[in-house]
Protein 1
Amino acid sequence: MSSLASLDMAYAPVEFENVRIGFDEGDILQGVSFQVLPRETLVLLGETGTGKTLTLKMAAGLLQPSQGSVRVLGHKVSSMPERELFAFRRQIGIVFQEGALFDSMTVGDNVAYRLREDHLSEEEIEPRVLEILRFVELEHAFDQVPSELSGGMRRRVSIARALITKPEIVLYDSPTAGLDPITAQTIITLILRLRDVYGVTALLATHRVQDGFALANFRFDPQSRIVVRERPITGRPADEPTTRFIAYRDGRIYFEGRPEELAATRDPYLRRFLV
Amino acid sequence: MADTSFQIAGRDAQPVERHSMAEVLVDAFKGLLSNIQDYTYMATRSLANLLTAPRYFQDLLDQMDNIGVGSLAIVLASGFFIGAVMVLQTGSQFVRFGQTALTGDIVSLALVRELGPTLTGILVAGRVASGMASELGSMLVTEQVDAMRAMGTDPSRKLITPRVLASILVLPLLTALNDFVGLLGGCVASVFSLRLGAVEFWTRAINALEFPDLMQGMMKPLVYGFILSTVGCYKGLTVRGGTQGVGRATTQAVVVSNIMIIGADVFLTKLALYLGDKLF
């Protein structure tokens, strides 16, 4: 399928090279290579079980590939010992599919978790937690526990928790899965704001192609503080965040390209995502 | 097979593989060895973590509170009744020889050397090992353990080490309380059932004990605490199969830790008797 001829070969915050991973049932990913460029959002499309979550977990060093290399922020995470990975992971943020919030802690404690691990004083922690909860519009939920929150609120807390250390890269695992369209839109708007306010590089796994198109076609204007339609690609500044798609099929990259290439595809398999 | 909207290629039913009995046994043995290796690694690491930072002191206190204070009621209640039953059983035999005064000696020795530590271990394992397995198992299946790793925290240090250390520190204290309350129960039973004097019972019970008995009684709970906590954590962190798997792990944690405690009791008793003879 189509590939990006103009791929910038400069520093890529995330780089997968011929990555294979599998379990007893066989290889799930069979030699996958791609890069995520600075401030880029790479949308990983695929059916359930095609290895999207595995890709994110390998990028975070939570799983090791059986072959190939994974580089993130210059670290070869595919061969780092677990002890070093703990330090590395503090530089990235991960939003898990179901939020993965610590259910015995309040929202405030969940968000503050990383800062407490870094032994920051409570005077420093509280304003930072409130600031990030304000960003995800959940300041009022500070003292609530995860079981008292809706699915969408849990995802937003999870995003806040991933953002508290202002990471350079955020990995989103199906952030809108199982949510109603309105809540899913809220989450995508939040991801847009994150990208356009903080300039984070993102790897987003999803089976909903509309999430990727929303990221590609809209941007958050920090001046007017509203979401506006994205300019045509030719009229954009060079340093503006971009969105790109990768689609997995049968353990390989089946499609790699820009949103407009995906939208114009005539491939019957890819068309099924567009319906 | 061509793809349609409702049919995806490559998903045809696979033929069922058949294995011989020998293959099944070999696989089971390999699985057992692999489990023992993983458990040994995890258990060793849980203690080795104490040598280097970070250490989670607050988590240790929380676990000591949960394991120690939380188990107090069942340990004290069962200790009291076990002591009373011991007196009733032994007293009914001693009555035949007119030696009811010996009841205090027997109950004291049996409780301090054997019943106190082992019953405390088994009771606490029932409550704590199952709790650890279900709590950690739930955290695992809801990706909370992965989230912890993703935020740069070593789950072995944060989740396992405080639980193991807390169990090791708290179990001897619970055992000591169990012994005392057991003797109290024995005293009540002997006063009301055997018509023995309370002072006589306590005097004989205390005089019957020597240092090797106390050493034996306090050495065992240290090992039992280590066993029940490491088994609980291991079963919790190796859960497979969602919430059903958590239930299975919880049951297995109790069964395995109880068997290990009783098995360890045999070796610890032999060791304690040997050391008692050689050193004291």
Protein 2
Amino acid sequence: MESPNSPFQVQAPSKSRLMKSVLAALVIAAVVLVLVVLPAEYSIDPTGVGKVLGLTQMRQGSNKTIELKDSLGGNEKISTAQIPDAGKPIPLPNPAVFQGAKEPAKSQTLTITLPPNGETEVKAVMTTNKVILYSWKTDSGLVYVDFHGHSPDWTNKQAFVRYLEAQDGLAADSGSLVAPFSGEHGWYWVNIEDHPIKITLTVSGYYDAIKNYGAL
Amino acid sequence: MKSGGGERQVMTVLALVVTLVCGNLAAAHGVSGGDAAFVAANRGVNIVPFMYLGAKHMVTGYDHLLFLAGVIFFLYRLKDVGLYVTLFAIGHSATLLLGVLTRLHANAYIVDAIIGLSVVYKAFENLGGFQRIGWKLDSRIAVLLFGLAHGFGLATKLQELSLSPEGLAANLVSFNIGVELGQLAALSIILLAFTFWRRSQTFLRGAWNANVLIMAAGFVLMGYQLTGYFRSL
């Protein structure tokens, strides 16, 4: 059994003293919260004291805001952001909009030759919110393409997202992707011509690796 | 002699108030701006920087410090200080490592409100409140449990940044070692201040008031975080 450490535990305080003290703590906390912390942190200022003390302006900066419609990734409830004062950047509500990196983006070009009816997959392994730019074309004719992403353990089929599908085939395509989740994001191609097709793909950006599954 | 004691008492109270009001409330328990960018951009094992971040987190995390101040308030023997701090560290480490590695998510506001509650709890315990109302939970178990909450708070914050899986485990362990080092540094200073203060004759009276203030600070933290939570809904 532990021994009591506090002298107030050895001799318990009277009920009224304890009650008064807890009440005092609550009152102090309420006063500090309402007059100082809430105005400064959230610009919630029911008494107006925060404004007098100049606390409410701490979170305001410039009063100009911009609407961020469908910000990248679309996973944020906030749709407006304050325009920061010069020299005072504030983080955008969606971290995917700007991301610094320690290293320059990678870039890779690869070619795959598909026989008639041949199929293959090339995937960029990416973490959430990372960006790639891509561009591919065939040397002759059309390929069926399915541009999609899934988590590494996608057998549970819970994270499979299709970005683009061209059932009639495409000869070339370009675009960008912000990874909506960590996993493999890339292309499934089928040669729908009756002659071999060479596909040349260039991917640039902040991917971790490119997986070329070869002819399937 | 007496006035000296009173002065120290005032200083302690002032220190508490200054920590609360002027401390960078926004950066309190999270990882602040530039550091967040570093963590997000980092690839691979980076032992010393992560250790530094852990230590910085602990030394500048007033919610942890308030709780620890409450924990060691009446611990006179170094052996007891060691025991309680170890229990807290075990709790803190377990949830920090497990939380991030198993990707357990929780609402940061709620976890931080629970940390505020831990401060209130500890102050109430120091005031002999549980003796009065006849409720008994071994304070060692309470420290361990709240240690779990504190670690989980940080795990949640760290996961909001996109941590690279490269070298994650090693970086987390480094971070955690940094947390313990920072805790040791902060505790030494708090302990030193308490040792001086306890020599003064006004300690007992001041101790009561200080714990009431710690409790008030805990309520402020709870109110701050719960307001944030309801605003985020």
Protein 3
Amino acid sequence: MKGKKSQLIIISITLLIVLIVFINSTIVNKKFKEGYIQNYLLSNIMDEICKTGKLSNGSYIENRYNIIKNKIENYCLKKNIICNITIVKKSSAPTNLTLLNYTHFNYTINYTSKYLKVYRRFNCK
Amino acid sequence: MVIKKSQILNFELILGLSLLSLIVFIPYNNLNNNKGIFLEIDTLANSLIKNNNFRLTILSENLSSQNLNNNWSAIENILNKSYKNYFLSITNTSIEKIVFNCSGKFKNKIVTEKIIYIYNNTYADFRILKLGVCY
């Protein structure tokens, strides 16, 4: 009787440990996968901003930056992510609009989601 | 040699617990498999959106119409070489148009999303490309 009782205790404890490890591994799995996917989204956002800047003429560049910034921020919101993008003209930027290009701006992104929190200042090369 | 009943019970116990422990590693294995497939699709989607012709194809596809108005055979060829069952859609956040859809029965669908801001001289649009694999 004593032997059976101790066996039951061992089984119960082991089952509990296995269950905890299983649940924990599932949570870690999900967190890692989401973080991984969102890291790719972050680089996708930066790539598109830079591509927009590189393919825009001086007079169009600020307007296009505003559009892409709003579109991306709305897209992020729909996914429950906060993407605060700031694209600010450098003080050294030329006043003549035709000379303005993507190198005359400072770019930052503040990305906050359930799985990833990143503040990044980036340059377009 | 006589095997005691308690020894058989202990053996069964160890066997049962070993099987349960194996189950614990299934999520880890799935994670590694999914990670590999996701990386493959994401790399492919990345290379596609870097191609200007492909970007223009996405931009010029009429999302309000159900029929495809562009020739997608070049993309289809690329996807056919890599995957048996795949999914590709374009959305402007309100309308989603499926270009290729997964067929038959499948257990998993892994999809990557790419945002694209595209324009020509007269028109600009923000679209999302979804590329996925079903297996």
